[in-house]
Design goal:
With 110 residues, this protein is an alpha+beta fold. It contains four helices and five strands.
Length: 110
């Protein structure tokens, strides 16, 4: 069990609890002027990262606390993170095209 003690600890931006990298999702800014948060599945994307437990509770806390904008320099779009968490942690490598969107992008569709 000694190898578990040596894993880097990260803090969830939702619940503020510490956890190992393997139990948290790494989030990064979409880049190129995008205001969207992207889930970094392989934990290799460039740029500053934020960490979140893959649970609806931590996602709700992070949104309520406006933690995404503080942790990732003003990003606001969390649709990718919401789809990933709603799809469940077991389906990490599968596409989530069938997931429903929580909010529409804009009200100008009509």
């Amino acid at each position: 069990m000694q190898h578990l003690e040596n894993q880097p600890q990260r803090t969830c931006i939702g619940c503020r609890q510490k956890g190992s990298r393997s139990e948290l999702l790494r989030l990064v800014s979409g880049g190129s002027g995008s205001s969207a948060v992207v889930v970094d599945e392989r934990r290799r994307m460039a740029g500053r990262g934020a960490w979140l437990h893959p649970s609806e509770k931590c996602l709700a806390l992070a949104v309520k606390r406006r933690a995404f904008g503080r942790a990732l320099n003003g990003v606001t779009g969390t649709a990718d993170v919401e789809r990933r968490i709603m799809a469940g942690t077991k389906a990490a490598g599968t596409p989530v095209a069938a997931a429903t969107t929580v909010q529409p992008e804009s009200g100008s569709e009509n």
